[in-house]
Amino acid sequence: MIGHTFLWSLAILNIYFSQSFALLLSGVIFPLYLYPETGCTAWTSLITSIQNNNILQFYIVVNPNSGPDGAPGSTPNADYQACVPALRAAGSAAHNVKLLGYVLTGYGTRSSTDVNNDIDTYSGWPSAYRPDGIFFDEVSQDVNLLPTYQAYASRVHQDFGTGFITLNPGTTPDASYYSIADLIISFEGFYDDFSASSLVISSSTPSRKQGVILHDGPTQAPFQISNQLTSILDVGVSFITDFPQAVAYENIPTGWNTFLGNMISAQAPCSAALFSIPR
Fold it and tell me: Helix axis angle, 146-160 relative to 112-124, nearest 10°?
């Protein structure tokens, strides 16, 4: 007798090939603070995973040195110039990669000149490795600082056109922040501390705009957590690593491929809800 897993896999493949590169609704985000090394050797497994899981949307946060590592008009070093295009190329056929430049905001305390300079630096990179938008880290959740982040979002749109904006307060911000972002990381923390009640989901704080980043998890995160994040909570993006907080984003998670497989399998019953990528 043919097993249910095989039937679901076959159904996904049929939908996938008939709809010409469709992506599942819930994707993954990778805070890539890992140096690529010469020949992109440190990123090879990530690049391969993008190619092998081309029905998942990948949001890759590029972070040369807590930012672009240079002033406006500068470019990253040769390894980044070679390896960031390799990330983009891995998703070129399925259009399943968005590159985001890391910008620190210090919960609203960092100089706006420095923040804007980082945005301008990324936007000035040549098109081969220029990010598709910005990942703002250490974002305030305070409504009183919303105008600061509105100004940063405007700067992204000014520099990038339709640049993709991700905010990372690591917790639930005031609902007004959702109006200026494409994604908000509404939980970043220890794997064991996360539960469904960690998120605030409503019409003004939609789950599809929320992301969850978990560190200090098991080496092989169980299927149940991926199912909770995708099919139950319906969050936009997720990331799980077994590495401890201090080095969580400087390593490829031990169970990375298992996690990606679980993200796909968890959404298999909802495969009819796949949507085609705009070209």
Answer: 20
Contact in structure between 49 and 256 (CB atoms under 8 Å):
yes
For residue 5, name the pLDDT band (cuts at 50, 70, 90): low
Structure tokens of 9?
């896999």
With b for 16 or more beta-carbon neighbours within 10 A and e for fewer, the 52-70 pattern comes to ebbbbbbbbbbbbeebbeb
CB atoms within 10 A of CB 111: 10
225-237 CB burial, b ≥16 within 10 A, e <16: bbbbbbeebbbbb
How far apart are the C-alpha atoms of 76 and 35, rounded to whole Å?
A: 12
Of all residues in the chain, the percent with pLDDT exceeding 70 is: 89
Tokens found for residue 42: 């440190």
Closest CA to 179 of 212, 158, 209, 199: 209
Query: Which of the four pLDDT bands, split at 50, 70 and 90, describes residue 162?
Result: confident
What is the pTM (predicted TM-score) of this model? 0.90
Alpha-carbon distance of 223 to 216, in angstroms, equals 17
The answer to whether 228 and 196 are in contact (CB under 8 A) is yes
Q: How many CB atoms lie within 10 A of CB 100?
A: 27
Give the pLDDT confidence of 227-255 residue by residue, as tens digits: 999 999 999 999 999 999 999 999 999 99
Per-residue confidence (pLDDT) for residue 7, from 0 to 100: 45
